[in-house]
């Protein structure tokens, strides 16, 4: 496992690299946004640990640039901002997880492994369900050859439903998978995301199993 750490704090960066090394995890450490790569196509980076407060820019800008370039490499945001609004901004901006400082190194490493497990299940190049095609690694979805404009949450929801087309996915399972902060997303929020997704891909494609969950149809 090889991580890219983008963090300006010298003491914190040194300590984190040492802890990762002790776990057999290699890492590269950058301290400025200007030194970050424009994308990760063809690189050996398995996961990025991204601090939001950098001396020459904001981590959110880097994240937006990577996702705009269709870089699907997992990104875990490291932040001292503990408010729910800041954590949700990270997730909705394309981060795979958000962890608030200070944190235990063991928790960070556990979260890195969890993110990589989710990413590995999305590793196939293209999924096809009827006229719907999904490219998990590029965060792209098309319907009849036309690109769909989906929010990060809508795209993740579509992926979870598309893993087993025709099989019911329970609301509770969807809630847990959409929320990597340790607490499930509210069911009302799931219903809103489902409604928006139906509007974009066709209401007939997502069936409600009353009292249980949802299934994606071809």
Descriptive report:
With 218 residues, this protein is α/β, with parallel strands linked by helices. The protein is 38% helix and 23% strand. The protein contains seven helices and 14 strands. Strands 2-1-3-6-7 form a five-stranded parallel β-sheet, sandwiched between helices. A four-stranded antiparallel β-sheet has the order 8-9-10-11, covered by helices on one side. The protein has a three-stranded antiparallel β-sheet with strand order 12-14-13. Strand 4 (53-54) and strand 5 form a beta hairpin. It is elongated. 28% of the residues are buried. The model has no long low-confidence stretch (mean pLDDT 84).
Secondary structure topology:
Elements (H helix, E strand, L loop, with lengths): L1 E5 L3 H13 L3 E5 L16 E5 L1 E2 L2 E2 H10 L6 E5 L4 H9 L4 E4 L4 H16 L6 E3 L2 E4 L4 E4 L2 E2 L4 H11 L6 E2 H8 L8 H15 L4 E4 L3 E4 L2
Parallel strand pairs: 1-2, 1-3, 3-6, 6-7
Antiparallel strand pairs: 4-5, 8-9, 9-10, 10-11, 12-14, 13-14
Oligomer: single chain
What percent of residues adopt helix (DSSP H or I)?
A: 25-40%
Order of helices and strands: EHEEEEHEHEHEEEEHEHHEE
Radius of gyration: 18 Å
Average the pLDDT over all residues and give the rounded result. 84
- Put simply, the count of helices is 7
Shape: elongated
Largest sheet: 5 strands, parallel
Q: How many strand segments?
A: 14
Secondary-structure-based class equals alpha/beta
N- to C-terminal separation?
37 Å
What fraction of the residues are assigned to beta strands by DSSP? Answer: 15-25%
Which residues sit in consecutive blocks of at least 5 with pLDDT less than 50?
none
């Amino acid at each position: 496992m090889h991580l890219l750490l983008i963090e300006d704090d010298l003491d914190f960066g040194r300590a984190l690299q040492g802890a990762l090394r002790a776990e057999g995890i290699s890492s590269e450490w950058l301290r400025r946004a200007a030194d970050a790569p424009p994308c990760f196509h063809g690189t050996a980076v398995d996961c990025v640990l991204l601090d939001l407060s950098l001396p020459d820019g904001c981590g959110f800008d880097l994240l937006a640039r990577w996702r705009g370039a269709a870089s699907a490499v997992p990104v875990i945001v490291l932040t001292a901002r503990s408010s729910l609004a800041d954590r949700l901004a990270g997730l909705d901006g394309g981060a795979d997880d958000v962890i608030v400082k200070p944190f235990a190194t063991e928790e960070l490493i556990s979260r890195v492994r969890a993110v990589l497990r989710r990413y590995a299940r999305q590793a196939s190049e293209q999924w096809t369900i009827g006229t719907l095609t999904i490219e998990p690694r590029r965060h792209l979805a098309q319907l009849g050859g036309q690109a769909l404009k989906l929010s990060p949450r809508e795209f993740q929801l579509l992926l979870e439903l598309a893993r087993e087309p025709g099989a019911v996915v329970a609301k509770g399972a969807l809630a847990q998978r959409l929320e990597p902060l340790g607490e499930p997303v509210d069911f009302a929020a799931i219903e809103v995301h489902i409604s928006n997704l139906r509007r974009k891909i066709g209401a007939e494609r997502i069936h409600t199993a009353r009292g249980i969950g949802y299934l994606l149809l071809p």
